[in-house]
Specification:
- The complex is a heterodimer of chains A (about 240) and B (about 425).
- By secondary structure, chain A is an alpha/beta fold.
- Chain A is about 40% helix and about 25% strand.
- With about 425 residues, chain B is an alpha+beta fold.
- Chain B folds into two domains: about 200 residues, no CATH class; about 180 residues, no CATH class.
- Chain B has 16 helices and twelve strands.
- A six-stranded mixed barrel of chain B has the order 2-3-8-5-7-6, surrounded by four helices. A two-stranded antiparallel sheet of chain B has the order 11-12.
- In chain B, about 40% of the residues are buried.
- The chains are: A alpha/beta (about 240), B alpha+beta (about 425).
- Chains A and B meet through helix 1, helix 2 and helix 3 of A and helix 1, helix 13 and helix 16 of B.
- The complex binds adenosine-5'-triphosphate (ATP) and magnesium ion.
- Adenosine-5'-triphosphate (ATP) binds next to strand 2 and helix 1 of chain A.
Chain lengths: ~240, ~425
């Protein structure tokens, strides 16, 4: 299995009068085709870790490799380009542009990357939306869609440029059981059948159950596997 | 459509009312700029044309610019000789041997010249005495260098030919005397000579001091009346190209020695006033556009504030800071451009309206309207200024937008 993402002693401290440690000393390796769930109590640093993995935030110490490229220390513009090409984000709140239709939102990363002609991009975006059962919603704006539909549009947008790494922060957090299962299956499918690496933060044990691997964060620190297993059992029983 | 442009337009369209208000600001600014500038420049041109038409382009005086050097000073050219209390030598006034000099000047290309003997006299009519200037002229030459012929109420310069003792006075002086055409008026020269002259023509320029203070008689008559035979003390010149007046004046002054003054020199104070007027106009009008630019700053700042979430989305997707800046600069440019187009339209309408406003002019008896300058350069200036201030106004919020860090927004939202 080839490694997509690797971190070494990743630490992020928010400077200030009282410096806050968000995550500390994280060593992590994510392989192609793997679906990993990040779990942990609220405020444990799950989102913070995801921003670091997605090159949205810079670590205070430690390093991040993406496809064997050391990304730590690269310029902001360079990181932006890597994000555009190789990383897809799905946020807890759908984060779509309100003035743009579902189709335009999905086309956004393609148009920015500009590798496809306008009509090719349009075809690809409608194809993506169709696979997520959104053919009817294509020309609607986010405000005219349901929460689950919006979240699926967000997933479609994350996939626009065929990234190897998909990062999702509580993608089903605001959804009901049915919609949540739908998004989960989509992410699962991406890892299993399309050989991408998927990392999803979740509070939902059922969601985490579907993952290949579960990681537990407590107070910004990665828990060892056996402790993680116990913690997961506890969360399932609750 | 270009991605940045479509995002920019979506922002402007999502804030329709604010967009319209700021467009109105820019549009009105441009329109006022145009209307005021068209009127100011139109009236300036009109004024300058009248100034050039109605004044001599060059006047040669029987004076020297520098006092003659004293013999003692000449003797010790580099010595420390300074002489005080010199009593000036009585100069024979007038241009010496004026006919030769007139001949010389009239041979220069692109100009017409006429000699004048200017003097003062007391006019007496019906028991009333009034002082006025006497211009001794040669009517046939004079009419080439003066617009006075346009202002005759009755008769013309040529009327002087019909009666050697004829005099032309302004309606202002005639009114003071209650004198009419054909009345005889006695003229007393400074030397005490008295002559009775007949009013053969009347003029009215509309400038009171001129209509009350200037009279014309034949040059020969003036020379005898003023006791200065064969003398003229002014040359009046008109050039084909008035702009060349300073050069030609210098040429004449060097050749003749007499002070030759171009109309530009003579009306330097007026020209300065015109300059000051322009400075005032452009600052006031520029201020309108700067105020309008604040409107643009306001809209774009609001959009940046409201759309920080969108900025975070775009940046997390992989947009660069410069892509974000470009979006907001485009918004400023669109507002500036659309505002300029609307403003130019409105400005032209205002100009057309102003051009129909009738005015009474002292110089013109026919129908006259506000003078409007229609040049495209002022439109380019207005639009350019509007675009420039719109871009500057957009740049500050654009820079701020470019600096948004998506993590900060994501942390806040989570
Ligand atoms: N801007 C900030 N300033 C100071 N501390 C912050 C800031 N943002 C987050 N934190 C702190 O950092 C820690 C980690 O936050 P993070 O959002 O990563 O947690 P999380 O595991 O994603 O929580 P949740 O499950 O509620 O989303 C928390 O203790 C939080 O209080
Ligand atoms: Mg979180």
């Amino acid at each position: 299995m080839s490694t997509v993402l690797r971190t070494e002693a990743l630490t992020r401290v928010l400077p200030g009068d009282v410096p806050t440690t968000l995550v500390e000393n994280i060593d992590l390796e994510i392989a192609r085709g793997e679906f990993v769930a990040i779990m942990g109590p609220s405020g444990s640093g799950k989102s913070s870790l995801l921003y670091l993995l997605g090159l949205l935030d810079m670590p205070s110490a430690g390093r991040v490799w993406l496809d064997d490229t050391l990304t730590t220390g690269l310029s902001e513009d360079h990181l932006a380009h890597i994000r555009l090409e190789r990383i897809g984000f799905v946020f807890q709140f759908h984060f779509l542009l309100e003035e743009f239709s579902a189709l335009d939102n999905v086309m956004l990363p393609m148009r920015k990357l500009a590798r496809l002609e306008e009509d090719e991009a349009r075809d690809k975006a409608s194809e993506l939306l169709r696979t997520f059962d959104l053919a009817e919603q294509m020309h609607k704006r986010p405000s005219q869609m349901s929460g689950g539909q919006r979240q699926r549009v967000a997933v479609a947008r994350a996939l626009a440029n065929d990234p190897q790494l998909i990062l999702a922060d509580e993608p089903s957090g605001s959804l009901d059981t049915h919609a949540s299962a739908n998004v989960r299956d989509i992410l699962h499918d991406l890892a299993r059948n399309q050989n991408r690496a998927v990392v999803a933060v979740t509070h939902d044990p059922t969601f985490a159950q579907a993952a290949d691997r579960r990681i537990f964060l407590v107070d910004g620190q990665l828990q060892p596997p056996e402790r993680a297993a116990t913690l997961f059992e506890v969360s399932v029983r609750r | 459509m270009n991605l940045a442009v479509s995002i920019a337009l979506s922002h402007l369209l999502s804030r329709r009312r604010q967009t319209l208000v700021s467009l109105a600001g820019i549009g009105l600014g441009v329109a006022f700029f145009l209307a005021v500038s068209a009127l100011m420049r139109g009236s300036e041109q009109d004024f300058m044309r009248r100034l050039v038409d109605n004044s001599a382009h060059i006047t040669v005086y029987d004076e020297f610019r520098l006092a003659k050097p004293q013999a003692a000073e000449l003797a010790a050219a580099h010595g420390a000789v300074e002489i005080h209390g010199v009593k000036p030598e009585t100069e024979v006034r007038g241009i010496r041997q004026y006919k030769q000099k007139l001949d010389f000047v009239s041979r220069l290309p692109g100009l017409r010249v006429a000699p004048v003997l200017l003097g003062q006299a007391i006019f007496t009519f019906a028991g009333k005495d009034l002082g006025a200037a006497i211009n001794g002229v040669e009517p046939d030459l004079m009419k080439n260098v003066s617009t006075i012929d346009q202002y005759f109420v009755s008769g013309s310069l040529a009327s002087l030919h019909s009666d050697p003792d004829g005099i032309i006075i302004g309606t202002g002086l005639a009114d003071k005397f209650r004198a009419k055409l054909g009345d005889k008026i006695s003229v007393t020269s400074p030397t005490g000579l008295v002559r009775v002259m007949k009013i053969v023509a009347l003029f009215r320029t509309g400038t009171a001091s001129y209509d009350e203070g200037q009279t014309f008689i034949i040059l020969k008559r003036a020379q005898t009346l003023l006791g200065r035979p064969n003398v003229a003390n002014r040359f009046i010149l008109k050039l084909d190209d008035p702009a060349r007046a300073p050069v030609v004046a210098g040429q004449i002054e060097r050749a003749l020695g007499y002070k030759s003054q171009s109309w530009q020199e003579a009306s330097e104070d007026i020209m300065n006033l015109v300059k000051i007027r322009n400075i005032i106009m452009y600052s006031v009008v520029a201020a309108t556009l700067i105020v309008a630019a604040f409107g643009i700053y306001n809209v774009i700042s609001t959009v940046v504030l409201e759309k920080t979430r969108d900025i975070a989305i775009l940046k997390s997707i992989g947009f660069h800071a410069r892509d974000i800046r470009l979006i907001f600069l485009i918004e400023g440019a669109v507002l500036g451009l659309v505002g300029s187009v609307l403003g130019t339209g409105l400005g032209l309408a205002l100009m057309a309206g102003l051009a129909r406003v009738e005015v009474k002019s002292p110089f013109i008896t026919t129908q006259a309207f506000l003078p409007i300058y229609w040049g495209w350069d002022q439109m380019a200036l207005a639009a350019g200024f509007a675009m420039g201030s719109a871009l500057i106004a957009a740049y500050l919020p654009a820079r701020k937008g470019g600096r948004v860090r998506p993590v900060d927004i994501l942390r806040g939202a989570a």
